[in-house]
From TrEMBL:
Role noted for this protein: Cytochromes P450 are a group of heme-thiolate monooxygenases. They oxidize a variety of structurally unrelated compounds, including steroids, fatty acids, and xenobiotics.
Organism, scientific name: Zavarzinia aquatilis
Lineage, top ranks: Bacteria, Pseudomonadati, Pseudomonadota, Alphaproteobacteria, Rhodospirillales
Positions in coiled-coil regions: none
Pfam families xref list: p450
Entry's family note: Belongs to the cytochrome P450 family.
Protein name, as recorded: Cytochrome P450
């Protein structure tokens, strides 16, 4: 039975409510993992769907692959600009209200993106690979055996945090601050992470003060190979306002943190849900290269990106008005049977595994996509080296994050047998 069908129980029947009342933005659906049948109904009956009373205000849901691609490639019509609302369903980028290039339109977006991109050039990734491999190795060698532990805490968070600290050349002993700031930046009050927007802003300001100190040290030193130094010494970014500096920093922290972290966890969970695929992988580790993009499709760690229409336009036969909020549900497009064969199955040797929406598309397509893929590849190469004959077993249900933006995990109990 498909995952979607499994979730369609009485209390969670998307056909029990009128189509117009469906609001897929409710974070509880993501936490309780009851989202699939709602997206399935929207894809079938109303792929460009108007929700007048959404939890975050009125908005359009775009749920099919081809319509999402149309929005992504029409940046002259659909804006990412913070001033108009930004890139999350919650106005102002989860109420962060800071300028960052993911939430800018050309030409400024293009200039700032160009400045940051070299950090993830193929040459730089090659330089980073041995450092990441060594760190993954240490984390895995330190894991307990014959004992249930939280994979999210011990592996996914620790690894991505170490990675970020490397990219920023961030003080090693303080690296967990990066994890905290990333969680805070995308959190909604009530999620268990923050209690109020005031608390959120206070912690974000603390992050800003810390990084300003690092910036001041590096702007007066020789240019280095870390992101802060690159920003401080670039013509396009050197003269940023403090808000812009902080916004772009948070973009890189969140971009490189939640996404990779939740894909590391999601991959292990998927392999446990599809044990035949785990077996196939152990028999043929060369499949890691096609499994990695499949993990990223399957997990879709960022469930959506939002745009705001700058002019009246037509999408999927619906008239979108200037000023309307348009949400591209990558999580749904990645399960669109018209674009992806057997989309509700996790298949590690798909013919075209990179055909997915998890990295977005068009001018904002993820800058760090090759870095994210590389981290996942190394994690699985090192896991299979250590445990070639046995699976790492999931021992219970994962606890999922209360968010319709970051689709991820708070915990996943696992065990490694001796
Ligand atoms: C943009 C996903 C890893 C940095 C994005 C977007 C998505 C995304 C969906 C927006 C695309 C759009 O609007 O069309 C992911 C996923 C990752 C990942 C699924 C890992 C599995 C990373 C990493 C970094 C990073 C490791 C950091 C180095 C960025 C930046 C942008 C971005 C800076 C803004 C690009 C722009 O606006 O031009 N990412 N990301 N991401 N990502 Fe990633």
């Amino acid at each position: 039975m498909s995952e979607a069908a499994l979730k369609r129980d009485g209390a969670n029947d998307p056909y029990a409510i009128p189509l117009a009342d469906i609001d897929v933005s409710d974070p509880a659906r993501f936490r309780d993992f009851t989202l699939w049948p709602y997206f399935e109904r929207l894809r079938k009956e109303d792929p460009v769907h108007w929700c007048a009373n959404g939890m975050f205000g009125p908005y359009w849901s775009v749920t099919k692959y081809k319509d999402i691609m149309q929005v992504e490639t029409s940046h002259n019509i659909f804006s990412s600009d913070t001033e108009l609302g930004g890139i999350t369903i919650e106005d102002g980028n989860a109420k962060l209200g800071l300028p960052m290039f993911i939430a800018m339109d050309p030409p400024k977006h293009d200039e700032q993106r160009k400045t940051v991109s070299p950090i993830v050039s193929p040459e730089n990734l090659a330089k980073l690979e041995s450092t990441i491999r060594a760190r993954v190795g240490m984390i895995l060698d330190d894991l307990p055996v014959n004992e249930t532990f939280n994979w999210v805490e011990r592996v996914s968070i620790e690894l991505t945090t170490q990675m970020l600290a490397t990219l920023f050349d961030f003080p090693w002993e303080d690296r967990r601050k990066l994890t905290r700031w990333s969680d805070v930046a995308t959190a909604t009050p009530g999620s268990g992470i923050i209690d109020s927007y005031e608390q959120k802003m206070a912690e974000v300001m603390e992050c800003g003060a810390y990084f300003t100190r690092l910036w001041n040290e590096r702007v007066n030193a020789e240019p280095g190979n870390d992101l802060i130094s690159m920003m401080a010494h670039s013509d396009a970014m050197r003269h940023m306002s403090p808000e812009e500096f902080l916004g772009n920093l948070l973009l890189l922290i969140v971009g490189g943190n939640d996404t990779t972290r939740n894909s590391i966890t999601g991959g292990l969970l998927a392999l446990n849900e599809f044990p035949d695929q785990y077996r196939k992988l152990r028999e043929n580790p060369a499949l890691i290269s096609s499994m990695v993009p499949e993990i990223i499709r399957w997990q879709t760690p960022l469930a959506h990106m939002r745009r705001t229409a700058k002019m009246d336009t037509v999408l999927g036969g619906k008239t979108i008005r200037a000023g309307d909020k348009v949400v591209m549900w990558y999580v749904s497009g990645n399960r669109d049977e018209e674009a992806i064969e057997r989309p509700n199955e996790f298949i590690i040797d798909r013919a075209r595994p990179r055909q997915h929406l998890s990295f977005g598309f068009g001018i904002h397509r993820c800058v760090g996509n090759r870095l994210g893929e590389m981290q996942l590849r190394i994690v699985w190469e090192e896991i299979l080296k250590r445990w070639p004959d046995q699976p790492i077993e999931v021992m219970g249900e994962p606890k999922r994050v209360y968010s319709c933006f970051v689709k991820g995990y708070e915990s996943l109990p696992v065990r490694i047998r001796a």
